[in-house]
Write a structure and sequence with these properties.
Elements (H helix, E strand, L loop, with lengths): L12 E4 L6 H8 L4 E4 L5 H11 L4 E4 L11 H9 L4 E5 L6 E2 L4 H18 L11 E4 L3 H4 L22 H11 L4 E5 L1 E2 L11 H24 L5 H16 L32 H16 L1
Parallel strand pairs: 1-2, 4-7, 5-8
Antiparallel strand pairs: 3-6, 4-6
Length: 293
């Protein structure tokens, strides 16, 4: 998988949940600069939260290490982000996407859950339960994931958001917080190693429970008068840009603007090793051309 990572990647984070199959050792052999992060609890949700907390780049891409997702598609996600979206999700069922792994029963369940979300949240998702996503790091607080430093419950259960419901939770919260959400066609391959821990019925009901909980959460936040995160982010970015680049009233003005989550508005605080947006666009264009060739 590392061999397929495009040049625009400046940082790779591997979240280790206590793997016994030399995953960490092999990753370090293949990519010495890989950043290994230890999971603080259990479950995919906690693993993602730990990874997000360790990221220093402007753009975060969620990708599975089992070979089912294709790193070569990352430039397509980046293109949507640099084009104006704040959160981009992969879809196996639109825009040329496909799955070599999903069973008819899981596809039926995914379609049903997808329909429920589209009706409740007035969205147009085509693939709710797919974990290939990319987003600007500035929007991570909008996802409001469980604090990675919280202890695991004494009874051994998972905190809400630590399990497979994480993908549904992230997708819904991105919409509920009024982020600009886009979709990109993606091909899901059969996993190369290991077996999935997904249980069709148990985790399907968990996803349905997540949808109901998130609908109630969104309504409660609206009733409490809590402004969507996108509004707060836009206001903060405007203040930051104005403070760093005061407007000269004598200078001609333009109507265009930066992406609401563009961290490069402040070049002085750009994380070390992160490529500029111009570099990202050039590398992403080159990668897309290579894929078409």
């Amino acid at each position: 998988m590392f061999a397929k990572l495009p040049d625009l990647i400046s940082e790779v984070i591997l979240v280790d949940g206590g793997s016994k199959d030399r995953t960490v050792a092999v990753a370090r052999e293949l990519r010495p600069d890989v950043v290994v992060v230890q999971q603080t609890r259990t479950g995919k949700g906690n693993a993602l939260a730990c990874g997000f907390a360790a990221c220093t780049g402007d753009i975060i891409v969620m990708i599975d290490a089992d070979g089912s997702t294709d790193p070569g598609e990352i430039p397509s996600f980046v293109a949507k982000l640099t084009g104006g979206d704040q959160f981009v999700k992969g879809t196996r069922f639109n825009f040329g996407g496909f799955s070599h792994d999903i069973t008819p029963l899981r596809k039926l369940g995914n379609d049903g859950l997808n329909l429920v979300v589209n009706v409740l949240f007035k969205t147009k998702f085509t693939d709710l339960c797919y974990g290939y996503n990319a987003f600007w790091r500035d929007v991570v607080p909008a996802l409001d994931l469980p604090d990675v430093d919280l202890p695991r419950p004494a009874d051994g259960s998972k905190l809400w958001g630590d399990g497979f419901e994480i993908e549904t939770m992230i997708n819904i919260r991105a919409v509920a917080e009024q982020l600009r959400v886009g979709e990109v066609g993606s091909t899901e391959h059969e996993r190369i190693h290991g077996q999935s821990n997904l249980n069709t019925f148990r985790d399907g009901f968990r996803v349905l429970r997540t949808i109901v909980n998130e609908f109630g959460r969104a309504r409660a936040r609206r009733r409490a008068g809590i402004a969507p995160f996108a509004t707060t982010l836009a206001e903060a970015t405007t203040r930051r840009t104005t403070d760093l680049h005061p407007v000269d009233p004598r200078a001609p003005q333009h109507t265009g603007g930066r992406h609401a989550a563009d961290r490069h508005a402040d070049t002085a605080t750009k994380p070390v090793g992160v490529r500029s947006l111009d570099d990202l666009r050039a590398l992403q264009a080159r990668a897309l051309d290579d894929r078409k060739a």
